[in-house]
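[#protein-structures] MJ: dropping Protein kinase domain-containing protein here for a structure pass
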Amino acid sequence: MPQTARPGDVLADRYRLVDLLSESRGGRFWRAHDRVLERHVALHVIDAGDDRAPGLIDAARRSATVLDRRVLRVLDAERLEGVCYVVNEWGSGTSLDILLATSGPLSPRKAAWLVGEVADAVATSHAAGVTHGRLVPENVLVERTGHVRVIGLCVDAALHGLPADGAATDVTDLAGLLYAALTGKWAGVSPSAVAPAPQEHGHVLRPRQVRAGVPRPLDALCEALLNPYAARRDLLDVTTARGVAAYLEEFVGDPAGVPEALAASTPQVNLPSTIVLPPVPDVVPHDARSEPDAPEPEPDAETELVEPPGPSEPEPAPGPGPEPARADLPTEAGLPIFDDATDDVSWLERRTEPVPPPPPFEEPPSRPLFAPDPTDGAPARRPRPGVSHGDAGPHAFADVPGAGGAPGDGTYWPWDTGDGRGTGTALPAVEDTGTLDEVPGRRWMRLAIVLGICAAVLLATVVAVNLGRGRGPLGTGAEDPTESASPTAAPLSTVAVQGVTDLDPQGGDGVENPELAPLAADGDPASTWRTATYKQQLGPAGLKTGVGIVLDLGSAQEVAQVELTLVGAPTEVVVYVSDTEPTAVRDLAVAGGDTLEERGRVSLEEPVTGRYVVVWLTSLPAVEGGYRGEVGEVVVRG
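AK: finished. C-alpha cells for Protein kinase domain-containing protein:
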C-alpha cells in the first residue's frame, strides 16, 4: 500500500484506515479498524525503504516483551506492500499536553500520583531491558476513568530516530513530566510541543520559582534530576525510575480517590440532556363548562409538542349538574399547581367573592388602660413626689378627678387607696433632685485617660534616665559600650595549596589535561587549566555529568570559601571537601555550589574540615565548536 493511502483503504487485508491523526518526517499515524478482531487500533506507517524501518521493527519486537497494564501494547509489526507498519493498542482519553493546555497545571498530589504511575511502568520496562526514549507529555494518556497509560514505548523514539538505550534520558524526562504537571512547562531533554521551562544562565528555574505552592519534596526531586549540581542528590535515591516511583509513592501516601479526582478534572464531552415536564391538562373556558358536548380546539400544527404519556386522569365523582355559565366573569385558566410526589396538576383560580373590608379603626382610650375607673368608686391618684405639673408623663393628661390633683392636671402617682397604701400597680417613687444623671461610663473614661497620661509620662522619664546612663531605651545593655559589643567574626585567611591534580572518573582514559592542572593554583590567573571541548553539554543527558580538579591542602584544614577566576561564562561549579584523596564524587557530600561568571566565589553554608578540595564543573560555557571550561586561579579560604 503506498504512502498516498486514503481513509477506507485496507492494509494487509485486515486493517481498514479510518482517520489520519498526524503526519511528520515521512511517517503517518492512523486510527484503523481491525476487521478480524473488530476493534480500533493505532497504526504507525513509514515507507519500507526508510532508514528507520529496521529500527522500528526491532523497537516493536522489544516493546512487545513488556507486560504492564499501563503500557499500550504492540499488537503487530510487518513490512508489507512497500510499507513498514506497527500496530498498537488503541487508548481512549486525553493526553497530558492537551490536559495542561485546557485545564492548567495539576494539583501537587495529582501530579505526583500521575508521574509515579508512569515511573512505575517505566521501571518495569527498564527491568525487561526496554527503554522508552521519548517520555514527553504527548505520550502520557489520561483515560476517562483517571487511570494513566504510556504511549509509544520504544516505538516512538525509533520513529524520531532517537537512540534506544536512553535509561538516563527516561529518568530525566520523568522529572520533566513532574515539572510540566506542576507548572505547565516542559523541562525534559526529549523534544516536546509543550512550552519550554524558563531558564536563567542555562539553569532551569525550580518549580517553586515558576508556580507558588509547590511542595518542597517535589521541588527537590525536580531540582535533583534537572539541575543535579545544585541539589543534595546523595539524600535522594532518584538515579533510577524505580527510585523516582518509590519517592513519589511515599509523597502521595494512600492514593484512594486520586484517579477519580483526576478524571473529574479531565475535559469530557457533555451530551445535552432532554428535560420532560409532566403533562398539563387542557384549559377549558368557564363558559364551555356548561356545554359538555363542546368540541375541543385543534392544536396549532407549528406549536404542537409531542409529550410523553402521563398518568391517566381519574373520572369525576358523581355530583350535581354543571355549574351555570356566568357572564360577568372573564375566561381565564388560573395558575397550575404541580405536585412533586404524584405529578398531579391542580389549578388555582381567582376568587369570586370580594375580599371583606378590614375592621374599623378604633380610637385609642382616653386614659391608661390599667387605670381604675373613678366613676366606680376607685381610689384616686396622688401626685408623684418631686414632679411638677410640667414634668408629668404621658398619662398626666388623662382627665381624672380625685384627691391629689385637680381634674385634668395629670398629677397622680401612684393610685391612692385612701389608707396610705398604694395599689401595687405603680412604680416606686424616686426622689428627684431636678438634675439629670451623667452619661453612663463617662466617669470611668476620664479615669482611664488620666491613667494613660501618667503611664506615658513615667515611660518617657525611664527612657530619658536610661539614655543618660548610656543604656538602651528600656535599660538593656551595659553602661560600658565596649562590654556589650558582640565579638567580630574573624576574617577569612588564605589556605596554601600544596598540589593540584585533574579528576575525570567518567572519561575513557580517566584524565583531563593533567599537565595543566597545577596552573589552576600557581598565582597567575593568565595561566589556566582547561577541559576538553565537548560537542554536548555536561549533565544527565550528556556523555558526562561533570569534570574537575582536586586541590591538596597538605593537611586537614577548615574550608569556608573557594574563590575562582574562570574563562567564559556561565560555569556551574560544585565544591566537595574530603579527608581522603577522591577518585569520584558520587560518594562525596556537596559542600556548596553556584553558577559563576568569570570571577566569583562559592561560600559554604558551614565550614567543612578536610585535606582535599574538589572543584567540580557540571556545566561549561559555550565556545566555538562546543563547550569548554577553563580555570585560571583557585583560592581556598578558611
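MJ: nice. The domain at 10-89 is CATH 3.30.200.20 (Phosphorylase Kinase; domain 1).
AK: one more thing. The radius of gyration is 47 Å.
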